[in-house]
Write a structure and sequence with these properties.
With 120 residues, this protein is mainly alpha-helical. Helix content is 73%, strand content 3%. The protein is built from four helices and two strands. It has a two-stranded antiparallel ribbon with strand order 1-2. It is globular.
Amino acid sequence: MNFIGNIIWLLFGGIIAAIAWLLAGIILCVTIIGIPFGIQCFKISEFVLWPFGKEIELGNFGVGGLLFNIIWIILFGWEFAIAHLITGVIFCVTIIGIPFGIQHFKFAKLGIIPFGARIY
């Protein structure tokens, strides 16, 4: 069932979301300071490409991860999280879109705190 969900996800917008995260990663990697943030965007892009069957565990980020998460939230994270929250609500309006809305809610969680998050 996860495979079918991932295929439908790709056909109806998942590829666009993955490309958006990939482009954000490329833009952030332009500067040396932005490279850690860009790497997180690349990881999230891979997760956004095939989200069904995967879960996120937040935490375990240490002092450096805490600092990077604070910078991330202030500069980039809140935009990503709001975009995924709005998209998730739009998908949840219909019964068919609820599984896709739930995936966007997972992305919003990851968009707020990417450092120290584990995808399994």
